[in-house]
């Protein structure tokens, strides 16, 4: 009963027949009906329900009909069916002006109340459908260029070395996946980058043909520290002298008293801290990690110049200085500060909890591959918030308490590096590259054979044309003639292979057919880029060429084995990150004063928890619904400490039961998910509510409209999120979506911006009332601190379908009952990721059949993945 | 040859010496620069997140010359007669509240091509470059500051005729070397290198041709992108070849190699220095700069990211947002200083022949109407010193781009979603 009529036709019809009768026959498209199949079986477009005709007629058509066409806008000829870009654009315009309050003009009757709300709700929902339909690829899978992740992995699998491809575009596809071929563009700058990266990778790979010589160096920590302290004291003293004695005073005049004075007057580096340091007996035979320099770090652990991209092991002998060291200060972090990292900050590569004591120190060991030369200068520090200001503040606060800065917590005896470790991968890659040389082959003939076999592997399913190899060999000969070493000339040609279309694109020619079955080789490629984001390994290739991969049972066994392979982590993180919009975790900087426990290590662990949980569901083939509610979490020691779960030792993630009374288990109990629903300062019920609708309930609200006025009237007041949000309900253009979104967000308000549980919301933090300067100027500022303002949290509300909940636990229970909706959303995204194109109309049947199977198998993770892989579509090029 | 010795002066941190313009190498170049009127130039500066709404825009009831310069633009007071602020310009297709630059110079409709979730079209600077870039060593130069969130997808402000992103240089030091460092390898070797790079392109094209076999239409389009990018490189190589034996000219006032560590405020300042220097030697006539956002405000003392800042309310966020606006104004004034002080052969200044546009697709916070727009420079014939408020609140920003292009003598009929030029700019 959907109409394809314009307003004009509709008006004619209405005026011909009695109004009631015609309204009765008009269909009403419900929001969220997305792509429901119509009678003809074709693509369904966004359709504005015709019941809004009256509203348009009363409020718009007086000026915007074909006759008046005020402002050049004629709505009379506008189709209710948004099946062309033009129609969708015009409807979008209508939405924009009504949302922004620009139309109807001030002196005309205004749209009001429920009519307006309904109109806007339908319009924005139908526009989403229209956008989807208009960008529907009709099932066509566009040839895909390797995205950046896949490119890195593919190079690694060919050459056995990791490359830094950060100069390439990251291929993030707004609103979609980086596997979508039609969104992966190619530009001339990229071509040159590909050549450059391939060149570096080959340099590295060919240099590790043989087993490298492993070296080892141990550095006594006291030496590293003393050097730094001396340097620092010298700098401070120099500055002091320059200030106090502008006429000049030579360094030889420096006496201990002056040095002491210099340190005493220094704002950041207090003398007492140095004094305490000098008096600490443990500095004789090791380094005590002090906060001298607004960090606790021990610098100057230098790996050799050729260590880049090679694997090293870093060891350190460490101990806690005291049994009373608080839990959160028992960790050491290691990392480096390559250029671009701000002063006082560090790129953290690893974290370890120290358990050794001064009587019995422990030796910790971490593996590390420097990605560039800036990373090979390592540091070790006590775990810290990665911010110079935070460190200064930490220093000042504790200095006021103790008079000598924060008491040290960790002692380091020595640091040692050993490497490069024997890495089989590049050696094996070399063995494959340099195929056995046949008798009587000249060097050139041999190099041609090497090039050919490499190109054959690099191109996956397509053989390189002889004319192509001829051209490369012509280049090779030219080089050799110029006096270039033949091996270097060969290397150049190998690099060109890695910038050629045969390598860069996943090639599935149709040879004039509309669609066709993939060959076994092509299927293996699609499968391995789906599950590994990497090319097929030898075993998968063998299976494909034996012709058995297409057998359902064999495929199933193989897929299960592939999922167990560590390479499947690429699928887990690649898919999950994009599916759950986890880029939001890095969108904002978190206020360390409000949330001192949420440092970089916790943030990384929180991110990893999401991946590790999904990995765990796959490994144990558990139901997808565990993500909605679970009596287990997958955490490491850091996160367990954060959540208040005892007895979890070690930095690896593992499945543990949730202790009684903790609100964890499932996505909604995860710190990462809650932090994504904040702006680093406050929790955002709107972001959280919208995320739950999109990701868990598969009921996406339309995108937030641009140009809606910010709710400024509460500025400067200390109000709870719930009261602030009430403003959303006042304006019809806001209410239409926010009445669905916000209540879910309120149900999650017991989690603060960094996912910790709270019973009340802090509206004013006392420290916010004074700037550092004001504190410095006014000694009595502490006495003037205003009280903290808090508000009780009311987590009760209703889901969009009217289901009530009283608190977070009930909200989670109600959501977990909607397993089928969640499974559908997951399936649609999985299809999109796997097939490399937006989920479209043609995929509804596929989604239905996967879901049917999944339901029978209790929504086990494997049922979804196998459902996709074993579908007809997966083995079809269209 | 003295000129080749000079080119050896390219030492890393040394001051580079003045060029002897009458030297052998320059004679070849003379034909390109010996035009009687100085060349027109265009510079586009995009700030990412929008401005502080309350204190950046002049009052709407003060139009024309007699307007009060808003607080955040105060550092531009000495050039009030040389700038124009426009209001009520926008892109009608904009829907992305975090994309300050993606469509800023293009006005494209993201969903403009059925079956695709992202589409863009040529940017105004590239339209200008097609004409202005013929006679200079570099057709155009794109700068793309690091720490630049709030700009949206893209590799710089520039998008090619095919609507594909054009890469930019991300540090002043990279720009410095591109503009002023001569390759010290002997000419024959460089010619040989060029020949080799051509052969490399020929080989990959060989593979591209065989890859294309048997593909359906959409897939062929994808390989066409590859072909197109190889063609672009070929064009670039031909140009490089033309200029191969012409040493790079050095500006009158020596320019020092910038420190690699420059960030934020210092980065922008040095980029302006280098742009002015590049114009002095006519290395290029078209610049775009996607300016740093995070590193800029952090160099001004902020501890938050620019996205946090953009959701401003009273307090630190608002203060920093205002400080950022003032800093941009201060830096533009500094840039104008430089351009005015630099004379062309015909006695005019660089300023007289340039058009500079500063702004963002984002108005403020996450609004997309009334894009903040400030223009300066005498190149397009704009009568400056005014606050112009368009009568139509939805005047296409592309009308301004079209006006500036046409005013600068670019032969173009329309741009993006333009509906015409803004004639009041010129009267």
Mind explaining what this structure looks like?
- The complex is a heterodimer of chains A (878) and B (427).
- By secondary structure, chain A is of the alpha+beta class.
- Chain A has four domains: 7-134, no CATH class; 145-211 and 424-507, no CATH class; 215-421, no CATH class; 576-758 and 793-816, no CATH class.
- Chain A is 43% helix and 10% strand.
- Residues 14-41 of chain A have low confidence and may be disordered.
- Chain B has helices spanning 2-7, 24-33, 53-56, 124-132, 172-180, 187-212, 217-242, 265-280, 294-299, 306-310, 316-341, 397-407, and strands at residues 41-46, 83-87, 89-90, 141-144, 286-290, 354-359, 373-376, 386-389, 395-396.
- Chain B is an alpha/beta fold and 427 residues long.
- Chain B has a single domain (41-182, 256-425), classed as Alkaline Phosphatase, subunit A (3-Layer(aba) Sandwich), CATH 3.40.720.
- Chain B is globular.
- A seven-stranded mixed β-sheet of chain B has the order 4-5-1-6-7-2-8, with helices on both faces. A two-stranded parallel sheet of chain B has the order 3-9.
- Chain B contains twelve helices and nine strands.
- Classes of the chains: A alpha+beta (878), B alpha/beta (427).
- Chains A and B meet through helix 4, helix 7, helix 14 and helix 16 of A and helix 6 and helix 7 of B.
Which helices and strands occur, and which strands form pairs?
The complex is a heterodimer of chains A (878) and B (427).
Chain A: H1 7-16, H2 19-25, H3 53-59, H4 85-99, H5 113-134, E1 144-145, H6 148-159, H7 188-207, E2 215-220, H8 221-244, H9 256-265, H10 271-279, E3 287-288, E4 298-302, E5 312-320, E6 331-336, E7 347-353, E8 362-368, E9 377-382, H11 388-402, E10 410-419, H12 424-433, H13 443-458, H14 466-481, H15 486-497, H16 501-504, E11 505-506, E12 516-517, H17 520-531, H18 538-545, H19 552-564, H20 569-579, H21 600-619, E13 632-635, H22 637-643, E14 654-657, H23 671-676, H24 685-696, H25 721-730, H26 732-747, E15 760-764, H27 772-777, E16 789-792, E17 797-798, E18 804-805, H28 808-816, H29 819-835, H30 844-856, H31 861-869, E19 876-877
Antiparallel strand pairs in A: 1-11, 2-10, 3-10, 4-9, 5-8, 5-10, 6-7, 6-9, 12-19, 13-14, 15-16, 17-18
Helix pairs in contact in A: 4-5, 5-26, 7-15, 8-9, 13-15, 14-15, 17-18, 19-31, 20-21, 24-26, 25-26, 29-30, 29-31, 30-31
Chain B: H1 2-7, H2 24-33, E1 41-46, H3 53-56, E2 83-87, E3 89-90, H4 124-132, E4 141-144, H5 172-180, H6 187-212, H7 217-242, H8 265-280, E5 286-290, H9 294-299, H10 306-310, H11 316-341, E6 354-359, E7 373-376, E8 386-389, E9 395-396, H12 397-407
Parallel strand pairs in B: 1-5, 1-6, 2-8, 3-9, 4-5
Antiparallel strand pairs in B: 2-7, 6-7
């Amino acid at each position: 009963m959907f109409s394809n009529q314009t307003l004009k036709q509709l008006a004619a019809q209405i005026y011909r027949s009695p109004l009631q009768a015609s309204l009765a026959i008009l269909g009403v498209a419900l929001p969220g009906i997305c792509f429901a199949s119509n009678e003809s079986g074709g693509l369904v477009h966004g359709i504005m329900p015709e019941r809004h005709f009256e509203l348009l007629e009363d409020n718009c058509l007086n000026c915007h009909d074909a006759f008046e066409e005020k402002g050049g806008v004629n709505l009379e000829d506008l189709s209710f069916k948004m099946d062309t870009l033009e129609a969708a654009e015009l409807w979008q315009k209508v939405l924009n002006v009504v949302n922004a309050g620009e139309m109807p003009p001030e002196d005309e009757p205004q749209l009001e109340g429920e009519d307006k709300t309904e109109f806007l709700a339908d319009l924005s929902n139908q526009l989403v459908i229209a956008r989807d339909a208009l960008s529907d690829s009709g099932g066509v899978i566009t040839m895909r260029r390797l995205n950046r992740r896949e490119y890195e992995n593919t190079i690694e699998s060919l050459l056995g070395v990791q490359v830094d491809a950060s100069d390439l575009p990251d291929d993030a596809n707004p609103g979609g996946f980086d596997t979508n071929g039609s969104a992966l563009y190619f530009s001339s700058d990229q071509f040159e980058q590909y050549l450059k990266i391939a060149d570096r990778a080959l340099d590295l790979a060919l240099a590790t043909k043989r087993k490298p010589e492993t070296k080892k160096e141990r550095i006594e920590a006291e030496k590293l520290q003393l050097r730094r302290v001396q340097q620092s004291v010298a700098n401070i003293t120099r500055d002091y002298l320059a200030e106090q004695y502008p006429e000049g005073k030579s360094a030889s005049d420096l006496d201990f008293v002056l040095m002491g004075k210099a340190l005493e007057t220094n704002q950041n580096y207090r003398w007492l801290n140095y004094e305490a340091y000098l008096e600490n007996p443990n500095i004789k035979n090791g380094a005590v990690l002090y906060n001298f320099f607004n960090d606790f770090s021990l610098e100057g652990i230098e790996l050799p110049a050729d260590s880049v991209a090679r694997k090293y092991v870093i060891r350190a002998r460490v101990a806690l200085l005291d049994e009373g060291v608080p839990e959160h200060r028992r960790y050491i972090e290691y990392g480096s500060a390559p250029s671009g990292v701000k002063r006082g900050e560090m790129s953290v590569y690893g974290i370890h909890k120290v358990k050794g004591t001064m009587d019995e120190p422990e030796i910790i060991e971490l593996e590390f591959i420097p990605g560039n030369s800036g990373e090979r200068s390592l540091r070790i520090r006590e775990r810290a918030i990665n911010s110079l200001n935070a460190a200064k503040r930490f220093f000042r606060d504790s200095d006021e308490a103790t008079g000598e800065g924060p008491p040290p917590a960790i002692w380091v005896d020595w640091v040692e590096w050993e490497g490069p470790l024997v890495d089989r991968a590049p050696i094996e890659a070399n063995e494959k590259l340099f195929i056995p040389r046949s008798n009587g082959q000249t060097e050139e003939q041999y190099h041609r054979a090497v090039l050919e076999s490499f190109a054959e592997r690099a191109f996956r399913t397509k053989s390189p044309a002889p004319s192509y190899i001829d051209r490369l060999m012509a280049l090779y000969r030219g080089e050799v003639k110029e006096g270039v070493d033949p091996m270097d000339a060969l290397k150049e040609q190998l690099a060109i292979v890695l910038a050629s279309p045969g390598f860069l694109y996943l090639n599935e020619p149709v040879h004039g057919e509309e669609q066709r079955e993939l060959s076994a080789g092509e299927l293996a490629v699609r499968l391995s880029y789906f599950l590994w984001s990497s090319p097929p390994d030898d075993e998968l290739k063998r299976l494909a060429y034996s012709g058995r991969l297409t057998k359902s049972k064999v495929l199933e066994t193989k897929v299960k084995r592939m999922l167990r392979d560590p390479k499947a982590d690429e699928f887990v993180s690649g898919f999950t990150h994009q599916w759950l919009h986890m880029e939001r975790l890095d969108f904002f900087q978190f206020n360390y004063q409000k949330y001192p426990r949420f440092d970089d290590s916790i943030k990384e662990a929180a991110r990893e928890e999401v991946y590790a949980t999904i990995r765990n569901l796959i490994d144990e083939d558990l139901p997808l619904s565990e993500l909605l509610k679970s009596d287990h979490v997958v955490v490491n020691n850091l996160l367990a400490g954060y959540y208040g779960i005892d007895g979890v030792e070690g930095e690896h993630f593992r499945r543990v039961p949730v202790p009684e009374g903790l609100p964890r288990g499932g996505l909604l109990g995860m710190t990462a998910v809650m932090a994504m629903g904040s702006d680093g300062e406050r929790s955002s019920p709107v972001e959280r509510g919208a995320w739950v609708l999109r990701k868990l309930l598969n009921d996406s609200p339309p995108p937030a409209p641009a140009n809606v006025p910010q709710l400024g009237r509460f500025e400067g007041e200390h109000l709870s999120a719930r009261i602030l949000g009430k403003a959303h309900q006042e304006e019809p253009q806001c209410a239409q979506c926010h009445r669905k979104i916000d209540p879910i967000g309120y149900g999650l308000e017991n989690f603060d911006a960094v996912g910790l549980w709270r019973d009340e919301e802090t509206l004013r933090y006392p420290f916010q009332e004074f700037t550092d300067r004001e504190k410095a100027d006014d000694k009595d500022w502490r006495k003037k601190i205003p009280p903290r303002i808090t508000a009780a949290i009311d987590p009760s509300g209703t889901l969009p379908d009217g289901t009530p909940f009283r608190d977070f636990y009930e909200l989670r229970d109600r959501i977990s009952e909607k397993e089928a909706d969640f499974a559908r959303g997951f399936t649609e995204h999985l299809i999109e990721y796997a097939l490399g194109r937006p989920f479209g109309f043609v995929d509804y049947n596929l989604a239905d059949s996967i879901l049917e199977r999944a339901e029978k198998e209790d929504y086990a993770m494997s049922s979804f993945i196998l459902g996709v892989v074993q579908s007809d579509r997966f083995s079809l090029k269209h | 040859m003295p000129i080749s010795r000079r080119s050896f002066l390219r030492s890393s941190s040394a001051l580079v010496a003045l060029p002897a313009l009458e030297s052998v190498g320059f004679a070849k170049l003379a034909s390109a620069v010996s035009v009687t009127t100085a060349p027109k130039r265009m510079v586009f500066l995009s700030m990412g997140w929008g401005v502080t709404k309350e204190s950046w825009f002049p009052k709407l009831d003060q139009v024309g010359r007699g307007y009060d310069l808003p607080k955040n633009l105060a550092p531009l007071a000495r050039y009030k007669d040389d700038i124009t602020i426009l209001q009520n310009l926008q892109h009608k297709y904009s829907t992305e509240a975090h994309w300050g630059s993606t469509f800023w110079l293009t006005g494209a409709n993201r969903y403009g091509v059925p079956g695709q979730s992202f589409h863009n079209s040529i940017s105004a600077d590239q339209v200008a470059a097609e004409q202005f870039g013929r006679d200079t060593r570099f057709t155009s130069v794109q700068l793309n500051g690091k720490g630049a969130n709030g700009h949206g997808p893209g590799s710089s402000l520039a998008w090619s005729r095919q609507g594909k992103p054009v890469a930019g240089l991300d540090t002043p030091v990279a720009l410095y070397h591109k503009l002023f460092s001569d390759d010290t390898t002997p000419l024959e070797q460089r010619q040989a290198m060029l020949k080799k790079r051509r052969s490399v392109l020929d080989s990959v094209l060989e593979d591209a041709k065989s890859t294309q076999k048997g593909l359906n239409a959409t897939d062929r389009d994808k390989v066409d992108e590859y072909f197109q990018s190889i063609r672009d490189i070929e064009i670039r190589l031909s140009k490089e070849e033309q200029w191969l034996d012409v040493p790079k000219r050095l500006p009158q006032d020596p320019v020092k190699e910038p420190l690699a560590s420059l960030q934020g405020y210092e980065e922008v300042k040095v980029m302006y220095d280098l742009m002015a220097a590049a114009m002095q030697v006519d290395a290029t006539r078209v610049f775009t700069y996607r300016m740093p956002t995070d590193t800029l405000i952090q160099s001004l003392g902020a501890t938050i990211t620019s996205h946090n800042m953009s959701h401003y309310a009273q307090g630190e966020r608002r203060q920093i947002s205002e400080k950022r606006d003032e800093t941009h104004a201060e830096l533009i004034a500094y840039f104008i200083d430089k351009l005015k002080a630099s004379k062309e052969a015909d006695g005019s200044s660089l300023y007289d022949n340039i058009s500079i546009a500063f702004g963002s697709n984002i108005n403020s916070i996450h609004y997309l109407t009334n894009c903040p727009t400030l223009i300066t420079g005498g190149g397009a014939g704009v009568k400056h010193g005014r606050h112009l408020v368009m009568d139509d609140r939805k005047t296409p920003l592309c009308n301004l781009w079209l006006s500036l292009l046409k005013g600068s003598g670019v032969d173009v009929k329309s741009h993006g979603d333009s509906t015409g030029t803004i004639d009041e700019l010129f009267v």
